Each structure stands twice: as structure tokens, then as C-alpha cells.
Amino acid sequence: MRKHHLSYLAACAIALGGLAAASAAQAQADAEKSRPVLSLYHVEVKHGESRAWREGVKALKDCYGEQKGERSWWTWERQNGRGTLYTVVLSSPSWADFDNQDPNMRACYTIFDEKMSPHEVSVTTQFMRPNSDLHQPGTGPVARVTGLTLNDYDKFMEVAKAVTETQKAEKAAPREWFDNMAGANGEEDVLVIRRYDNYAGMDAEEEGLWAMMTRVHGEEKSKAWRAQAREAIDAGWTYIYEYKADLSYEPTKK
Question: What is the pLDDT of residues 92-131, one digit of tens each?
Fold first, then answer.
């Protein structure tokens, strides 16, 4: 991770007409407040140097705590795929929060250069926001994360809304939905996350998505929705992530 990337991460951690018209504006403002901007920093660590990088993060965590830092970050480790990759997540209440800088982090900047950057291959940054129509917060330290690249966002969302409404009605496990707010070409447009209390949770038998849609809505509707979703999706991937509490920072859990 290069200094300008990490300094930006630190800055983000610093950062993590009539009555009817006025009411509508307030409602929109309230909705935006419930959709924090998530900064995702995907850090690829050099082969064989994961332990050293983790120690660097712990040193940063200790330093920030000593400075009485007030912003949180959460670290997840990818369990499959090429190389060793950690994703550091910070939450900001709005884009305006990115204008602020955290003086408590400045004293810790040298840790980035001395104890973290030497062990990193690259850093990729993304900005995500919960989808207000689909997002259902989940819990658990194990997550199945699916990313989808779309060629027709609106067409896909029609199906996603029907699926989410059905899952809610059938009391299926919640899914977290996030929209990519500033992605480069080829990046996933949406993330869908299913959380578990442990790895054993993934062994539990659950009704398949399209089996559920067929049972509830009938085969004809289910097939039509499935075909529409497939047409709207260009590519997809799924990774398993595990939450790392020792590499995360929350002021109330120091």
C-alpha cells in the first residue's frame, strides 16, 4: 500500500417550494443519511508476509487508540482466490465527511510506511452504498460475497426487488446489497452479501433461490425473472471472507 493510498485511507477513517416539496426534500435527506458511504480498501499482501503486515495493522490500531481516535474500521480476510487479500472497510455518513481530516491519525502515519507498505503488493479502492430498496443488514463473522457486473442495471433491479420481497415474506436469511458509487470499467456494479455465524452455517440446507421463486410465484414467472436477470448480468464472482477483530478498530471495543 503506497503512502498516498494509506493517507487517503486515514483521511477517510477520519472520514469511515411548498410544504409538500419541503417534506419530500427532508425525506430524501433522511434516506441519504441512512445510506453511509463505505470505503473499501482491498489490500493484496506479499506472499509470506501476511504476519508482518498484520503486526503493522495492530501497531496502527494501538497508535490510533492512544491518540483517542474516534473512527472505526473493519478488516476482512478473503479465504479463496489468488494471493492473500484483506479488505479494510470504513464508513462515512455522507460524502461531505471526506472533507474532514482526522488529527488523531496524523501521529500514526509513519506506521504505514515502516510497518505496512513494505509488505503490500497493491491497493484497490472502491466506494459502496447500501441499496435502500434491497439492503437487509446481516450479522456474523463469515460472509459469502458475490459481485456482479451488469449491462442493464434497471432490468436487473426489477428482478432483485421481486426476489428480495419474496425472501422477506418467506423469512429467508437477510442479504446485504451494495451499489458501487464510483467504479472503474469492469468493476462489479453491485455486491450481495450473505452473513453466517460460523463456517458450519454454510452446511445448513436452504431452499434454493429459484426453487423458492417457483414455489411462491409459479414456474412461468420464475423462469421469466431468471432469464431477465441472466440477460442483465455480464459477469460475476463469489468469495468467502472472514472478519478479523484483531485487525479492526472500534472505539467502544478497544
Answer: 999 999 998 899 999 999 999 999 999 999 999 999 999 9
Give 178-230 pLDDT, tens digit per residue.
999 986 667 899 999 999 999 999 999 999 999 999 999 999 999 999 999 99
3-state helix, strand, coil in the chain (%, to 5): 45, 25, 30
User: What b-and-e string marks burial along 177-205, b requiring 16 or more CB atoms within 10 Å of the CB?
Assistant: bbbbeeeeeeebbbbbbbbbeeeeeeeee
Distance CA(200)–CA(203), nearest Å, equals: 5
Same fold across 3-129 and 142-240: yes
Topology of domain 3-129, CATH: Alpha-Beta Plaits (3.30.70)
CA 38 from centre of chain = 7
Task: Write the class of the CATH domain 142-240.
Answer: alpha beta
Residue 83: C-alpha distances to residues 47, 91, 122, 233 (Å): 7, 26, 11, 26
Stated pTM of the model: 0.85
Closest CA to 10 of 116, 122, 118: 116
Q: Where are the beta strands (DSSP E) in 33-73?
A: 37-45
Domain map of the chain by residue range?
Answer: 3-129, 142-240
Cα separation of 3 and 109, whole Å?
Answer: 8
Residue 54 and residue 138: Cα distance in Å, rounded? 26
10 Å CB burial of residue 217 (0-12, 13-18, 19+) is middle
Alpha-carbon distance 193 to 117, whole Å? 29
Question: Cell numbers of 187, please?
Answer: 468493476
